[in-house]
């Protein structure tokens, strides 16, 4: 059958990106289709809160998507037998070439029982973003951001405002994400010598958790819950809490620079600093957060085609066309690639 009359393989691709990322995902699928004209990507948005339940149900029913981009729950899925180890779809020579092309960060975090179960789509670098205009408004020097936890706590209090009923109207700062702050406080979640040993009870991790919990006590967990509920459900573009000035300071990644450039009001003035640290913590810390965990579900009839889509996200094979596409994807999404060639 002539190539142009062959029926295309349709890959159902589940992801959770909405808002400003909707056209980015559409462009990625279109660009992939030009490189691989025999494959069509059907992108389906599945809300993050529903993704795990729906995915496991689809695998159990024998009707999973062909590709899943998800949160860091790769190992549990592997233990359940819900996904295919990606290295079994590649020869040793192919895997060795891929490992030479990408940074080790791409695959090292997805090793379980001597197999690689996922490839990351990109990496985020997290830091503290703060609104200089609001700093000036409350009498803080915009050129002296908080560099330690004590100062961060003091600034958060000064920057927080309330409405007539005593509800939080603008949050100075509200910490979350223990996995990030635990590291900043100097803790480790795994034994450095044996990553199979989980150390979430590391004293420094516990200290970070107690600090996070202190905000719920100081500002009242009910008020914080009500404040979070008052934020727009779609927290992107102009409705982003930092851009809309509902937060004065936030822990964010590099994509925020693009969001601010596109959607912030004229004259929006902001700064970026490393994550504030406590005494005994890690000074000048930032978090490299691998994101976009690309998985191939067990039961897909198209595992080889699904692998091509995961590799494409990494700019691989490293042809000029695919590297060009990868660079466009990273710029459009505000993401950072995991291969030096793409830079």
Major beta-sheet overview: 4 strands, mixed
Q: Helix-strand pattern, N to C?
A: EHEHEHHHEEEHHEEHEEHHEHEEEHH
Number of domains: 2
| Strand order of the biggest β-sheet | 2-1-3-14
CATH topology of the largest domain: D-Maltodextrin-Binding Protein, domain 2
CATH class categorisation of the largest domain: Alpha Beta
Mean of residue pLDDT values: 89
How many β-strand stretches? 14
State which percent range the strand residues make up: 15-25%
Class by helix and strand content?
A: alpha+beta
Output the radius of gyration: 22 Å
- Determine the CATH superfamily of the largest domain: Periplasmic binding protein-like II
Alpha-carbon distance between the termini? 40 Å
CATH architecture of the largest domain: 3-Layer(aba) Sandwich
Number of helices: 13
InterPro entries: Bact_solute-bd_prot1 (IPR050490), SBP (IPR006059)
Pfam families: SBP_bac_1 (PF01547)
Protein name: Extracellular solute-binding protein
């Amino acid at each position: 059958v002539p190539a142009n009359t062959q029926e295309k393989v349709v890959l159902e691709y589940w992801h959770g990106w909405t808002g400003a990322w909707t056209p980015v995902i559409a462009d990625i699928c279109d660009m992939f289709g030009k490189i691989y004209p025999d494959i069509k990507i059907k992108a389906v948005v599945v809300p993050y809160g529903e993704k795990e339940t729906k995915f496991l149900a689809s695998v159990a029913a024998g009707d999973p998507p062909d590709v899943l981009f998800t949160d860091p729950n790769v190992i549990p899925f592997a233990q359940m037998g819900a996904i295919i180890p990606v290295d079994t779809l590649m020869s040793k020579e192919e895997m060795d070439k891929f490992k030479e092309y990408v940074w080790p960060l791409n695959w090292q975090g997805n090793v379980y029982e001597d197999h690689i179960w996922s490839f990351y789509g990109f990496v985020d670098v997290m830091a503290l973003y703060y609104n200089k205009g609001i700093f000036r408004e409350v009498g803080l020097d915009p050129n002296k951001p908080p560099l330690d936890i004590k100062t961060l706590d003091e600034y958060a209090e000064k920057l927080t405002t309330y409405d007539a009923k005593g509800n939080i109207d603008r949050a100075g700062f509200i910490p979350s994400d223990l996995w990030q702050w635990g590291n900043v406080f100097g803790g480790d979640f795994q034994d450095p010598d044996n990553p199979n040993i989980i150390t979430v009870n590391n004293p420094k991790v516990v200290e970070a958790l107690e600090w996070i919990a202190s905000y719920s006590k100081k500002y009242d967990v009910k008020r914080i819950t009500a404040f979070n509920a008052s934020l727009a459900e779609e927290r992107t573009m102009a409705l982003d809490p930092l851009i809309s000035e509902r937060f004065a300071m936030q822990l964010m990644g590099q994509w925020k620079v693009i969001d601010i450039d596109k959607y912030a009001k004229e004259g929006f003035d902001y700064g970026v600093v490393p994550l504030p640290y406590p005494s005994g913590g890690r000074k000048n810390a930032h978090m490299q957060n691998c994101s976009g965990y690309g998985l191939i579900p067990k039961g897909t009839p198209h595992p080889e085609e699904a692998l091509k889509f995961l590799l494409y996200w990494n700019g691989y094979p490293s042809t000029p066309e695919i590297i060009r596409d990868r660079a466009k994807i990273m710029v459009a999404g505000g993401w950072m690639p995991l291969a030096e060639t793409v830079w």
